[in-house]
Amino acid sequence: MGAETTTTTTTSSVEGVGEGEERDLESNPLNQPLLKRSRTLSSNPLAIVGAKVSHIESLDYEINENDLFKHDWRSRSSAQVLQYIFLKWSLAFLVGLLTGLIATLINLAVENIAGYKLLAVSGLVEKKRYLTGFIYLTTANFVLTLFAAFLCVCFAPTAAGPGIPEIKAYLNGVDTPNMFGASTLIVKIFGSIGAVSAGLDLGKEGPLVHIGSCIASLLGQGGPENYRIKWRWLRYFNNDRDRRDLITCGASSGVCAAFRAPVGGVLFSLEEVATWWRSALLWRTFFSTAVVAVVLRAFIEYCNSGKCGLFGRGGLIMFDVSDVTVTYHAMDIAPVALIGLIGGVLGSLYNHLLHKVLRVYNLINQKGKIHKLLLSLSVSLFTSICLYCLPFLATCSPCDSSITETCPTNGRTGNFKQFNCPDGYYNDLASLLFTTNDDAVRNIFSTNTATEFHPLSLLIFFGLYYILGLITFGIAVPSGLFLPIILMGSAYGRLLGIAMGSYTKIDQGLYAVLGAASLMAGSMRMTVSLCVIFLELTNNLLFTTHNNDCPPNSQKNLTVGELADAKPPVVTLRGVEKVARIVDVLRNTTHNGFPVVDEGVVPRVGLAIGATELHGIVLRAHLVKVLKKKWFLQERRRTEEWEVREKFTWIELAEREGKFEEVAVTNDEMEMYVDLHPLTNTTPYTVVESMSVAKAMVLFRQVGLRHMLIVPKYQAAGVSPVVGILTRQDLRAYNILTAFPHLAKSKEREKGN
C-alpha cells in the first residue's frame, strides 16, 4: 500500500475471476479495493491492518528535504533567517498576549454575570421569598444555557466540549477539520461565558486551552480563511510543522490562563498533548505562558482597586496555602496513600460511567439540533433544582467568634453563607453550592477551618457533583472537566481529613488539595504536569512529589515486515514518470505518499548490474501541483536544477491546497513525462523489515511521522528496495491488537499450525 488513505475507498466486484482462481498480486489493478473481505483471514489479526478506519487525513510534520527545500535554505541570507526567527518569537508573544486578554474577558464576564445573579437570589432568600428565588435562579440559568447551547448547535458544533482531545490529535499528526476557525473561537469564548455563568458543573479551563490553540492557528495563517492577510513572511508559517509549534504555544498558554501556572502549562503540553518535543519549542512555549502570567497579574492588580465590578478574588483560581506550616509524621503516610488509592478507583469508575453516558448522549444528539438543545436545557433545570434546594437540607451552624473572616455573609463571595439561616449562623452546604465553582473550590480548600464543614454536607456535595459531572459533560456547550474533578476530589479529601481528626497534623484544606490532585491523576492520568500545576496553584512546595509514569509493555511479536505482507503491494513511481501513470495512480488510489524508485542506475561497488535505487518519497499534494501547473516534458529525461525553480517555490509546496478533481489533462499531455526527482523527499525515515512494530511505534510517535518506509533486510538482485509503507492507520490497527490480546494469540496459533 502506498500510504495512508484520505477518503473511503470504493469497493467493487472483480468480474471474470472464479472462486478457486488465484490472482497475481502484482497484476492487481489500481482501481480494485485495497482490502478485500476474506473468510480465511477473519481470525487473523493482520487482516485489519491497512483497513480504512477513518476519513480524517494525517499531517506532514516531517521536513520534506527535496531539491526546492535545500535551495530555499541555501539561498536565505542571514538577515532573512533572523527575520524568520524574530517572527516566530513575535507570534509566540502575540499568542500569550491575546490568550491572556481573552481569559481576562471571560473571567470578568463570568464573575459579574454570576455575581449579580447570586446577589439577586440571595436578596430574595433573605426576605423568605423562596419560591421567587427559585424561579429567578432557574430562569437565569436556563437562559444562559440556552444562549451557550444555541451558539454551539447553530454556528460552531466543534466549539462544544473542552476541545483538548482534538488538540491532542492534531499535535500528534491527525488533522481535525474546522477545530481552529474564527467561528469556533468566537463561539467558544461567548459559549464559555454563558455555560459557566449558568452554574453548570463544568469549568472554563478546557475551553481556554482550545481558545489559546485557535488564537495560535489564526495568527499563524494570517487570520480567517476568507479574510487572510497575504503578508509574504506569514506564508512561511502556512505549513503543518510551524503551525503545530504555534498551536503548542497556544495550548500551553490556555492552561496557564486557566490556572496561572506558566510552568505547569508547558509541562501539560509536554506530558499530555504532544509525543514529541524540541528544546527551541520549549523556550518559545514558556515565553508564551510567561506573557499570559504577566497579563493576568496586571489585570488582578488593576481589579483590586474595585474597577472591575463584582470581580473579586474568585475570578482567577489561586488558592494560596503557603502560609500553612506543615510537619509530616509517619502516621500521615497511610491517609495520603489512601487518598491516592481512592482517587485511582473513583477516577477509573468515573471514566467508565462517563463513557456509558456519552454513548447515550450520542444517540440523542444524532436526532438533530432540537434534541441537542433539549438535552442541554434539561441538564440545566436539574442542576438549578439541586443547587437551590439541597442547601435547605443542611443544618445551620453557629459562627465561630475566633475566626477573623466575616460570618455569616450574604454577598456573592464568602466562606460562611447565611442563606436561610438566622443571624449569627451559616449554612455550610450553601457555601459550596450557592456560589460559583471557583469560589466553591476556594472555600473547600480553605485552611484553619477544621469545624466549618459537616461530614454529611461534604458527602452530599461529593455525590451531587459526581452525578452532575457525569450528566453535564457531553451536552452541546463549551465545557471542561478540570474544575468538576477538582471539586469532587477535594470533597472526599476533606472528608478523610475530618476522619483522621487528631491523628494527623495536616490541615483539612491540604487534604482537600491532595484529594483533588489524586482524582485528577486517576481520571486524566496526569502526573508531573499535574504536580506542578497544583504547586503553582497553591503556592506551596510541600505538595511536590515524584511519580514514575511507565507506559505498559507493548506486544513485540509482530514485525513491520509482517504488516507489509498483510497489505496489498506498495504502489511506486519511477523517477521520471509518464503523466498517464501519475493520473492513473491519483485517480484510483487515495494514498498520500508514493515511493520513488529508479531502475537501472549505475551501481556502486558490490552491487549487481542494473541495481534499483530508492530515491525517496513524493507526496500526493506535490503530484497534484505538478499536474495543475502542467510541468511536463516532451521526452524522458532528468531536468536541470533551474527548471524546477522556474515553476515552483518551497513555500508553494508547503501549502495544503489543491485537489485532484480540479486537474484537467489532455490526451496529448498524457503521453508526456514528469521528472519527480526535484520534488522527492530524498531523506525519508526508513526501518528494516525485521523491526518490531512496538519499536517502530515509538519512532513514529516521537518524531511525528506520517509515512515510514519499510526496506528489505537483504538487498538481492531484482528485489524491490521498498517492502511497504507504515502509516498512522496501520498503527491504529496495531493498537486494536494490543487492546484485544486474543487476536494476537490467534495469530500465534496459526503459526503453530
Task: Give a structural overview.
The chain has helices at 67-75, 78-126, 130-154, 164-171, 182-197, 205-220, 240-259, 262-273, 279-303, 333-365, 369-389, 428-433, 437-444, 455-472, 482-500, 508-524, 528-538, 560-565, 579-588, 620-629, 641-647, 650-654, 667-670, 693-703, 728-739, 741-752, and strands spanning 397-398, 425-426, 573-574, 576-578, 593-601, 611-619, 673-675, 686-688, 707-711, 724-727. It is mainly α and 753 residues long. The protein folds into three domains: 81-549, Orthogonal Bundle (Clc chloride channel), CATH 1.10.3080.10; 552-567 and 685-752, CBS domain Like (Alpha-Beta Complex), CATH 3.90.1280.20; 571-683, no CATH class. The strands form four sheets. Strands 3-5-6 form a three-stranded mixed sheet. A three-stranded mixed sheet has the order 8-9-10. It has a two-stranded antiparallel ribbon with strand order 1-2. Helix 6 runs antiparallel to helix 7 (240-259), helix 10 (333-365) packs across helix 16 (508-524) and helix 14 packs antiparallel against helix 15. It is elongated, with a radius of gyration of 30 Å. The two termini are 28 Å apart. 44% of the residues are buried.
Task: Give a quick rundown of the structure.
This protein is mainly alpha-helical and 753 residues long. The chain contains 26 helices and 10 strands. Helix 2 (78-126) packs parallel to helix 5 and helix 19 (579-588) crosses helix 20 (620-629).
SSE map:
Elements: H1 67-75, H2 78-126, H3 130-154, H4 164-171, H5 182-197, H6 205-220, H7 240-259, H8 262-273, H9 279-303, H10 333-365, H11 369-389, E1 397-398, E2 425-426, H12 428-433, H13 437-444, H14 455-472, H15 482-500, H16 508-524, H17 528-538, H18 560-565, E3 573-574, E4 576-578, H19 579-588, E5 593-601, E6 611-619, H20 620-629, H21 641-647, H22 650-654, H23 667-670, E7 673-675, E8 686-688, H24 693-703, E9 707-711, E10 724-727, H25 728-739, H26 741-752
Parallel strand pairs: 3-5, 8-9
Antiparallel strand pairs: 1-2, 4-7, 5-6, 9-10
Helix pairs in contact: 2-3, 2-5, 2-6, 2-7, 2-9, 3-5, 3-11, 5-6, 6-7, 7-8, 7-9, 8-9, 8-17, 10-16, 11-14, 13-15, 14-15, 15-16, 19-20
